């Protein structure tokens, strides 16, 4: 069961031109409803009356919570405009209600629902289903077990043909929820009256019938005050030879008190379930306010504290991504476990250590001086040239982790619930975080390049000692006919020797590759991931600590739709708390 179904309200039901609007205005004591011929009420109007101790009368609409209407002609126009906003300037209807609250010392606490008038035929400009549509809409309200039916019937119409009574009988056959109201008593033909209906002899209800005398069209044209109209209504019944004996139980003032007393009785009977439903709704609204955030404090210190708390909330989400509490951090491990090894395997060492290139480098390295034991300078140049290739994968690893961290920043901002209401602060945090990541990337790039250059700057001595300890075996060659005598270096530079040099350099580079695969990963984590966890927003904290209050307020600039949503929730929360207090007051009477 919804809260709407739990709270009792009064649905005003009647045919078109039965006087529904006039009855409502008489109860309120104000002229505020649109008038005209045909179908005027095209959307349900949920009207909440709040009795105040004193002060000026005013009205508020739920769809315009920031406006307070003291001019009730403006209330009438707003109802028309809001109706047209949904239905357009047509004769179509909509089941989307308009919520209106009126605060006045001249009303009783009451909730009324003005519904479109029942009709029997569609007129020009209306759909063929309008008759059925209106009846279905009215039924959707009056079928609720907690809905009190105010069945409006003109006195100059046969009660047996009343659309309101017919519908009330169908949804409330026992008559427990139905109050009958006769309007236009003053317009009956001379010599006729409605005493049989008002005394309950023509059609009996469990609640007494109430007669109403609305303002005449002449009074409406003259803008006769509703208070004056009420006085004239009392005088009519008190001086009427037909209804004088019923005068104390007739009139709009009596009807309002009767409905208010009955609502109070119903509320007393349903207090436990209503209170439970109201408390549940209040908890839901409070939870919604907590989710979208409470109003922002005006004090600069409080704003700074709030910004820092929001930054910490983002930082927690970011660290959860890195540490495995949320997905994404595993992509960094993927860079070290898959991307970096794959890049190292693709380096063009085969081309660099080809027989032809090895011969070229070794020949050029000795210059005019032949080497004595092994071509050491050739080895060094081949190794230096090979190690240079490691710079590409090293820098690529730095960039890959940088892009993962940037994506995690974006995701963390989007997933930080507390930040969603502050688009400006989201942008500021993203900018500050990305600037920090750029600094970490630059430091990471410098570090991995140093690691590669360190491998070039000092070769492992054991590698050369091993070469010296294992003398080269040279295959025997048959002397060619008419060949020149061999030179000092020719014997060493035959294919077998060159292959051995290339093989030795390849073995050394493989050892370096294994080393760098580990040290590059460590350097990237140390310079980028570790720093992102430790100090991603450190500079940002220092900056905002020096900012003036106006700039802090600008950072906490909210989405206008979210501010409007919070205002509406706060308004509803206030109404529910007020309703709970009023119900509690009734319960203890």
Spatial separation of the terminal alpha carbons: 27 Å
DSSP summary, beta strand count:
9
> Biggest sheet, strands in spatial order?
4-3-5-2-6-1-7-8-9
Shape: rod-shaped
Q: Strand pairing plus helix content: what structural class? A: alpha/beta
Mean pLDDT: 84
Radius of gyration in whole Å, from Cα?
45 Å
| Low-confidence runs | 486-492
Strand content: 5-15%
The largest sheet, given as strand count, sense and whether it forms a barrel, is: 9 strands, mixed
- Give the proportion of residues in helices: 55-70%
Please report the number of helical segments. Answer: 22
Structure overview:
This protein has helices at about 5, 20-30, 70-85, 130-140, 165-170, 195-200, 215-220, 225-240, 250-270, 270-290, 300-325, 330-345, 350, 355-365, 375-390, 390-415, 425-455, 460-470, 495-535, 540-545, 550-555, 560-585, and strands at about 10-15, 45-50, 60, 65-70, 100-105, 110-115, 145-155, 180-185, 210. It is built from 22 helices and 9 strands. The longest helix has about 40 residues, at about 495-535. It is an alpha/beta fold. It has a 9-stranded mixed sheet, sandwiched between helices. The chain is rod-shaped and about 145 Å long. Belongs to the TRAFAC class dynamin-like GTPase superfamily. Dynamin/Fzo/YdjA family.
């Amino acid at each position: 069961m919804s809260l709407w179904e739990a709270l009792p309200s009064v649905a005003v039901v009647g045919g078109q031109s039965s006087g529904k609007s006039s009855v409502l205005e008489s109860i309120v004591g104000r002229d505020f409803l649109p008038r005209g011929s045909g179908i005027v009420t095209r959307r349900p109007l949920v009207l909440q009356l709040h009795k105040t101790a004193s002060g000026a009368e005013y009205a508020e609409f739920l769809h315009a919570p920031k406006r307070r209407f003291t001019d009730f002609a403006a209330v009438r126009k707003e109802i028309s405009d809001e109706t047209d906003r949904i239905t357009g300037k047509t004769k179509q209807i909509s089941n989307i209600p308009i919520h209106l609250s009126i605060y006045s010392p001249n009303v009783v606490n009451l909730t009324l629902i003005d519904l479109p008038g029942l009709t029997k035929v569609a007129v020009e400009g209306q759909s063929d289903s309008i008759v059925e549509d209106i009846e279905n809409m009215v039924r959707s309200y009056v079928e609720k077990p907690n809905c009190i039916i105010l069945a409006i019937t003109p006195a100059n119409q046969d009660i047996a043909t009343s659309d309101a009574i017919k519908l009330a009988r169908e949804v409330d056959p026992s008559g427990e929820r139905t109050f009958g109201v006769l309007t236009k008593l003053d317009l009956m033909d001379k010599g006729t009256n409605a005493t049989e209906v008002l005394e309950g002899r023509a059609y009996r209800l469990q609640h007494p019938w109430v007669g109403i005398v609305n303002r005449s069209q002449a009074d409406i044209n003259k803008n006769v005050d509703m208070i004056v109209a009420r006085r004239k209504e009392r005088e009519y019944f008190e001086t009427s030879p037909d209804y004088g004996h019923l005068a104390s139980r007739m009139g709009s003032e009596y009807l309002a008190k009767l409905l208010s007393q009955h609502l109070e009785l119903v509320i007393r009977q349903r207090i436990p379930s209503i209170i439970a439903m109201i408390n549940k709704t209040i908890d839901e609204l409070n939870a919604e306010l907590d989710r979208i955030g409470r109003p922002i404090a005006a004090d600069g210190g409080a704003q700074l504290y709030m910004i820092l708390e929001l930054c910490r909330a983002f930082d927690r989400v970011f660290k959860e991504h890195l540490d495995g509490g949320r997905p994404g951090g595993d992509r960094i491990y993927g860079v070290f476990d898959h991307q970096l090894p794959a890049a190292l395997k693709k380096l063009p060492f085969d081309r660099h250590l080809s027989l032809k290139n090895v011969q070229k480098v070794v020949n050029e390295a000795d210059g005019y001086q032949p080497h004595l034991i092994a071509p050491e300078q050739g080895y060094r140049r081949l190794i230096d040239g090979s190690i240079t290739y490691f710079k590409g994968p090293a820098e690529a690893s730095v960039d890959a982790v940088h892009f993962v961290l940037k994506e995690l920043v974006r995701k963390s901002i989007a997933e930080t619930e507390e930040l969603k209401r502050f688009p400006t602060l989201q942008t500021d945090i993203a900018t500050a975080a990305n600037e920090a990541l750029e600094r970490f990337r630059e430091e990471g790039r410098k570090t991995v390049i140093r690691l590669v250059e360190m491998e070039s700057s000092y070769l492992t001595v054991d590698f050369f000692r091993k070469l010296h300890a294992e003398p080269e075996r040279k295959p025997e060659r048959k002397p060619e006919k008419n060949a020149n005598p061999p030179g000092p270096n020719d014997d060493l530079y035959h294919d077998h020797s060159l292959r051995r040099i290339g093989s030795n350099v390849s073995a050394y580079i493989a050892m370096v590759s294994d080393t760098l695969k580990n040290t590059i990963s460590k350097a990237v984590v140390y310079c980028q991931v570790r720093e992102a966890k430790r100090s991603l927003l450190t500079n940002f904290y220092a900056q905002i600590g020096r900012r003036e209050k106006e700039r802090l307020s600008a950072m906490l600039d909210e989405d206008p739709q979210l501010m409007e949503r919070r205002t509406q929730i706060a308004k509803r929360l206030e109404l529910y708390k007020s309703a709970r207090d009023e119900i509690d007051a009734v319960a203890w009477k």
